[in-house]
Amino acid sequence: MRARAAEAEPLRGGAPPAPAASAGPTLPRAFFGRPVLDVARDLVGCLVSHDGAAGLIVETEAYHQSEPACHAFVGLTPRTRTLFGPPGRAYVYRSYGIHALLNAVAEEEGTGAAVLIRALEPWAGVEAMRDRRRLERAEELCSGPGKLTQALAIELHPDGADLATGPVRMHPRPPDRPAPRLVTGPRVGITKAADVPWRFCAASSPHVSRPRPPG
DNA sequence: CATGGGATTGACT
DNA sequence: GTCAATCCCATGC
């Protein structure tokens, strides 16, 4: 067993249990088994839930084996096994030795493609998010790919798990929410294929990561 | 088996 | 604006 005290330890003595984030039905497998750019666009507005908290996706990035910024560019290795697997699974990897980053595997089995979830608007279990992040402002809880996994308590464990059955789940856009208008731009923080405009943000959302897209 | 890079964040200048 | 922290895994000797 690894050291996981920070995860298991209650943060405050009398903290009430997080409210159940009943985010409703999950996205079908067929949603993810499509071109990764379509999946990345259509995921904005959808919900992600885990461990008593949930957020609306306000920012995504697409990655595909055909371009060098994608981990799958190097081919099938133990690390990229999940990327080449069936669509609709979670691909979670550690970045910079510290952060767990959440992706949704897209396209058909055998093709390495995924959508990185970069930012959420807190939707349920916000107090649990504040406890985990030790921050108050809603705009800072999930405004980055490493921040949102911390807020939702997602570690590497869900890698390879089905997003329809959990532990990490993805759900359609709540019916009372309008479909967001999208802003497209270059992906953040990469050195290879940095010019490809495969980043999709909900226009004017205060919950997206930096750098904020224009408009 | 040793090394180095990486899709980040938070603290600091 | 800079920079360190930190770990998985691909690569090369």
Molecular structure report:
- The protein is of the alpha+beta class and 215 residues long.
- 16% of the residues lie in helices and 24% in strands.
- The protein is built from 6 helices and 8 strands; from the N terminus they run H-H-H-E-E-E-E-E-H-H-H-E-E-E.
- The chain has helices at residues 5-8, 29-32, 36-43, 126-133, 138-141, 145-151, and strands at residues 47-50, 53-64, 90-95, 99-105, 113-124, 169-171, 182-185, 199-202.
- Strands 1, 2, 3, 4, 5, 6, 7 and 8 form an 8-stranded antiparallel sheet that branches.
- A hairpin with a 3-residue loop joins strand 3 and strand 4.
- It is globular and about 40 Å long.
- The protein binds a DNA duplex (13 and 13 nucleotides) through strand 3, strand 4 and helix 6.
Which tags fit this structure?
215 residues; 8-stranded antiparallel beta sheet; globular; disordered N terminus; DNA-binding
Kindly report how far apart the N and C termini lie. Answer: 47 Å
What overall geometry do the principal axes of the alpha carbons give?
Answer: globular
The number of helical elements comes to: 6
Rg from Cα: 16 Å
Rounded mean pLDDT score: 88
| Succession of helices and strands | HHHEEEEEHHHEEE
Strand content bin: 15-25%
How does the major sheet shape up?
A: 8 strands, antiparallel
**Helical percentage:** 10-25%
Number of strands: 8
Which residues form runs of ≥5 with pLDDT under 50? 1-20
Q: Which class of secondary structure composition applies to the elements?
A: alpha+beta
